[in-house]
Specification:
By secondary structure, the chain is of the alpha/beta class. It is built from ten helices and 16 strands. The protein has an eleven-stranded mixed β-sheet, with helices on both faces. The chain has a five-stranded parallel β-sheet with strand order 14-13-15-12-16, with helices on both faces. The chain is globular. Bound molecules: threonylcarbamoyladenylate (TXA) and magnesium ion. The site of magnesium ion (MG) has 3 residues, from loops.
Amino acid sequence: MKTQLLNEHQIDEAASLLQAGEAVGMPTETVYGLACDAFQPDAVRKVFAAKGRPADNPLIVHIAALSEWAPLVQSIPPLAMRLAQRFWPGPLTIILPRSERIPAVTAGGLDSVGVRFPAHPIAQAMIRAAGVPLAAPSGNRSGSPSPTTSAHMMADMDGRIPAIVEGGACLCGVESTVLALDDAQTVRILRPGFVTPEQLSEVAENVIVDPAVLAQLDPNAVVRSPGMKYKHYAPKAEVMLVNGDLPHFLKAVQSRCDSGSAVLVFDADTAACEQAGIRAIGYGDTDEERAAQIFARLRELDECGIQQVYVRAPRTDGVGLAVYNRLIRAAGFRILNAD
Ligand code: TXA
Ligand code: MG
């Protein structure tokens, strides 16, 4: 099967494929997703198969109007509704107990479902044209960096799915913030994303960042979000995350770098690294720039044949928390404290 690249004028073709139970690449404002009819168990199985994704890792269900949410869940508590009104359409996924409309396979066997109303006009048009909510995980092969362009998705999925809809480069670049409600005032962030804890605090009295966001899980711990337990976002190169200011960073990596190594640093740091004789790749100067670039840079490392990369860690507030979370997973929790 050759994977077709469709454009925004071919949404009806994409919708026909989705209605026929096929999996189709869909651009969103976060990353490209691999979409299917959330109500067709066989279509959902195709998505799991194309990604090579473990069956216990649930899919996010995407809607294109607030009114499409209620039929998918048991009920919508006031806090969830306030979050939706503030952040939808946008990069936020809200987990609630699922209704019987959601097949068990879509939910990875859990009794809950994460729902998101994406902001990307092509994603919205695909959902509307298909006439059903679309289940969509990120469009990468399981374990690889998420795709933020159609070319990245094609590299992972060519020959595995019938089509990808072109939608340009994704603006956010990291996936949605995934949260659950602990009680009427408390949200628990299971995966940080483009909506920050600081922004969520404007709507919820208490915002808890789940311990699994920044730390390696005890293999015996109960996992709230199954995606947390898998190695993720990883290029073939060995990644090491380095905490510290630029002088300490340079001191720590200089002796470790050889001809197969590179550093991934803030744009402002690249000149100093090159001067020190180290191959340097910039990944932006602000948290938002780093979010938009991180997955593309991780893919580039492999294209350049780099075997080992030292990454200067971003801050852990704002959107930086999401970038840090992706990087520690890409690094398999190898962290060096240089300060
Ligand atoms: O921005 C995004 O969220 C993108 C675009 C395509 O919408 N989607 C995405 O999906 O990143 P995926 O499947 O790659 O990541 C979803 C994460 C996984 O870690 C999964 O375990 C978690 O959310 N998740 C989904 N439904 C859940 C549920 N019911 N309970 C707990 N965790 C859930
Ligand atoms: Mg993913």
